[in-house]
Amino acid sequence: MEELVHNLYREVPFFQWIGFVPTAVLVMLACGLLVLNFFGLMGGLYTFFERKVAGWTNSRRGPNRVGPYGLVQFIADGVKLILKEDIIPAEADKNYFRFAPYLLLLGTALSFVVIPFGPILIISDLNVGVLYLLATGALSVVGLIMAGWASNNKWSLLGGMRSAAQIVSYEIPMALAIMVVVLLAGTMSVQGIIRHQEGGVLNWFLFSSPFTFLAFLLYFISSIAEINRTPFDLPEAESELVAGYNVEYSGMRFGVFFAAEFSNIYVISAVAVICFLGGWHVPLVGEVAELGNRGHALGRLLAGPPAMVLFLLAALPMSYLAWKALRAFVLDVRCKRRLMPNRLVRFNSELLVLGLLFAAIASVLALHVPARGLLPNLYHLGFAYVLPFLVFFGKSMAVSFVVLWLRWTVPRLRVDQMMLVCWKYLIPMGFFCFIGQGFWSWLWS
Amino acid sequence: MNAIRGIAGYCRNIYESVTTIATGMWITFKTAFFERKVTIQYPSHDPVSGRNRDEDLQDRCPFPAPFERLLGASQRRYRGPLAGMVSERYRGLLGHDELKCISCLLCARTCPIDVITVKGVRIEGRKGRAPITYVVDYAKCMFCGLCVEVCPTGAVFFTRQFEASTYDYHTLIRDLISPELRHERLQLAAAEAGEKPADQKGNV
Amino acid sequence: MTLVTEEMVLNMGPHHPSTHGVLRFTLRTDGEVIYGCQPDIGYLHRGLEKIAEQITYYQFMPFTDRIDYLAAMNCNLGYAIAVERLAGIEVPPRADYIRVLVAELNRIISHLISVGTFAMDAGAVTPFTHALRERERANDLFEELCGARLTYNYIRFGGVALDLPEGFLERLGGFLDYFEPRLRQFNRLISTNKIFKERLRGVGRISPDQALGYALVGPNLRASGIDWDLRRDEPYSVYADLEFEVPVGTPELGEPGDCHHRYWVRIREMQQSVRLLRQCIERMPGGPHRNKVTRKLKLPPGEHYVRTEAPRGELGFYLISRGEDRPYRLRIRTGSFSAMSIIAALSPGLMVADLVVLIASLDVIAPEVDR
Predict the structure, then answer these.
(1) Which residues does chain A have within 8 Å of residue B36's beta carbon, measured at their own beta carbons?
(2) Range of B44's domain?
């Protein structure tokens, strides 16, 4: 963001006319707006994905009535929440009641400042990025306790207290797991951590050593506890506390809680991707390009015609699957519009998703090598901006799918069991990883 | 010794957690992507004929046909009676055959909650009495089937119709005899009795 | 300086996602640990026993469905046997086998709901929907058979209302072939899950003496280690000719009597019911499905108590007749009522989450408690 402000001030006369400080303020407002939009969109979309995944794991479909394949469902939910009556309990502490959801939103939205969507697509690459993420994650505790207390409801209070204990405890294994990564990378800046993982899928921190693998699992589990998801969703245990700390909230106040929780899923998946899964590095394709660029013998070999053939061969099965899926989709659409007689065509919405995914992978594989030769500018544009963004997004979505998937598989832990898991299992394992990684790095240096 | 047992227990806990959770996740993954979804999109699905009203389709495994064979016997063998959605013996709303009914009032007396009200008149050439009103209170009816069982002529029966939701429950108290038939029968009965013909309402 | 603490009085009210039906508990807790629990019942009282005094025996049959609507066939069966014994009515063999068939099928689906809601109360929603998916298949079978999916009103004095439709036994066999692997999959999904086991271990341990003292019946009693099943020990209908095992809580899963045992007894009972069903299918005799019994049935004066094994335990009908066509008094004894009474005794020391699991494990449902 700083370079953007400086560049704008230098290049564009309009901003010179305004002055430096107003430029900075404008840019900050624009970034804030971008963050809030993304936050809202992610929050909403995740409610939709959650319901779809819930449906699929339960042998039923998710919402599929509202828009095409139910995509407009989250907008309909949002509109419904806005139109609801805003009830504040008579005996509740009104100011705290009103303020609590926004603290939660603050905790999540602030994390978006250091999430990198590309080599330069980041709002601010703080050199203590990871520490900043941990800190803002902790901010939500205050909001939860406030919500639980201000609702004037004993069930909410129970939920708020449980949640506070949980979040504060699970920050420790989370921090330990991330410390392992910081140890390897030598820097706390997110872009720095990502740049340390370049050079192929095997260079991801996930595969660096068994200790980092363990650290990934540790981070994953603790972050699920941080965001109050099953198996750690006692604060909002549906069957016991009927939504716990947000039971008295209705309408858009509840919507804010809801969106904040779901965007939080995105944030923790993004952090997992940054620290362990290579960030925005494009697997396979980018690496070959890198190798070719560096003048490596193997790279030159792979970047030549044999590579083209290899990639085309890899693209073939993807294209076949994509063809099958998209063909079924097209036939289905034509069937619905009565252009073809009533034939029994099998289709579902997952097929469309998979088909598009395969088609995307196939096209990237098949086209990138000729593109590099023929359209170098487009190629560099793609690689600098578009592809890393999509890859980062895709990877975070994959990790969040696992978070959503886990919710619908396992039952929830009781309070004391949850504390037991944290203090007696995760924290010792965290220390074990940290020290083990230290030894490992020393051994292989 | 106790320490070793303790550590063994600790490791076994971790191992067991990981394996059982992984097994569970695999099962839900299979259910999510490789199994038929059981949702019946109801309004699009005509409940009596089983026909799809707007060509809505059922979900299926996203992979091409060869993979279906891998799904296993449990997936393929049982086909429930979904076509036609409700079975032949389904206890839907009550139906009444005005020609078979002899107004014996057995159904009204057998009903445990007094849902049926019947009135009949004697007509020449017809066994028993001919019904002129047959009021069923669908709001109270519990579809137990005792009335259908006791009917000697089979005049009361179950249809397969179950969509009867309304906004006003008074519309659920229905007279199953058509007004024309009622009028006709009242005229016949009055003619036989040699009195003045009755008016529409059945008042003599 | 002493810290002033108060007990918190919580109302786990009739409107609650995890009390099974409309039950109400007033809890005194210190935040998380419960000191005392006072159940409050009566929210689903419909006066069934009083209704029985107003209408004839034949007319009361649909109301017996509503005593326990999840296991309606068993309730029908109990009532029919009670009346038949007092009146001395005989049942043809085919009808006897059909009755056992539907009773066992109903046991399977009742237990499916029981374990499904149990898993849901512990936090896992997927097993519940999977259990319901299996239940829907069985409900399709019931719909073919008698036209209803929940309140069947199928059993009559002297037999059953309708004969089996064409090909029903093949379809039932198909359902059983489909169901057994699904039950195994269900076990792999949730029954052996470590988190689930940890939630259930040691919660609400009921010793055999306590179980007998509180008059627990059915799976609750068997899980405490007492080997008592009315189908084997006081056989009625054709249970004497069928072979099946009675699952009892054994020490291999830990000391008997806790929620884990109650859960596993129900799972194993489902497996045994499948076995019973296969035997019924094999041995189904031909013949009439109903003996003619007059509808204006007048029972000779007398009184007796007949009990059968419903999925939730012993379902007893105490029938006093004064020689009319309606009972003078019909008292219905249900298993959930006793199970409800033990909750107050077991709750001190449990956490709120454990209480939810305990209620679910005892398989308490409101219609049985309140009738």
Answers:
(1) 59
(2) 2-76
Give the C-alpha distances (Å, rounded to integers) separating C16 from A229, A239, B192, C121: 21, 8, 65, 11
Supply A401's token pair.
Answer: 């799918």
Cross-chain Cβ contact B25/A405 below 8 Å: yes
Contacts of A239 in chain C (CB under 8 A): 17-18, 120-121, 123, 356
The pTM (predicted TM-score) of the whole model is: 0.84
B143 contacts C144? CB cut-off 8 A: no
All residues of chain B having their beta carbon less than 8 Å from the beta carbon of residue A405 are 25, 28-29, 32
| Dist CA A380 CA A360 (whole Å) | 18
Chain C residue with minimal CA distance to B142?
C62
- pLDDT surpassing 60 at residue B197: no
pLDDT digits (tens, 9 = 90+) for C294-353: 878 888 998 899 999 999 989 999 999 998 888 999 999 998 898 888 988 988 888 888
Report CB contact under 8 Å: A350, B33.
yes
Q: Strands across the sheet with C313-321, in order?
A: C302-310, C313-321, C329-333
Taking the domains of chain C in order of start, what are their residue ranges?
8-365
Order across the sheet with B116-122: list the strands: B116-122, B129-137, B173-175
**B72 and B101 co-located in one domain:** no
Fold (CATH) for C8-365: Cytochrome-c3 Hydrogenase; chain B (1.10.645)
- Which stretches of chain C drop beneath a pLDDT of 50? none
Interface check for A57 against chain C (CB to CB < 8 A): the answer is yes
Q: Has residue B123 been placed in a domain?
A: yes
Using a CB cutoff of 8 Å and minimum separation of 24, what contacts does A110-114 make?
A: A110/A136, A110/A139, A111/A136, A111/A137, A111/A267, A111/A271, A112/A35, A112/A38, A112/A39, A112/A267, A113/A31, A113/A35, A114/A190
